[in-house]
Amino acid sequence: MRHRPALVTAGAALAGALALAGCSGSGSGSGSSGSGSSKAELSVSGPYMPQPVSADMAAGFLTIANKGGAEDELTEVTSTVAGQVTMHSTMGGAMREKSSFAIPAHGQLVFKSGGNHLMFEKLKHQPKQGQTVTVKLTFAKSGPLTVEMPVKSATYNPSTGH
Description:
10-stranded mixed β-sheet; 1 helix
């Protein structure tokens, strides 16, 4: 019978230590508002559009980082250069249009060649290398982000680390 109380005591001590560790983590920020960690904090990096080879369609790529503690969702993409912008995922070589993409807390959403990507359809004019295209990203919870997307050569491939 002596072994059970020892196990219970060790378990209680471990649970107590975990509870204290959890409290100290959330309590250390009590001097500040701490609200930034409970919502999404979105930023965009590496946006680009390869110069379209088609007169009516183009692709777009970028990375959306979320440094916040809550997930968000990309729900719409618009641009004055296109009649519509659609979002696509590519899995196992199959491309599927999606109505939204989740952006995990402390994570990122990557649109890259061969993977998730944006399709600019019904182009109003064909963007040329050296120009920029304005893109508006709309999210479920966060305010919209406007991104200037440079038009690169049709064969552009971003360096790793971008």
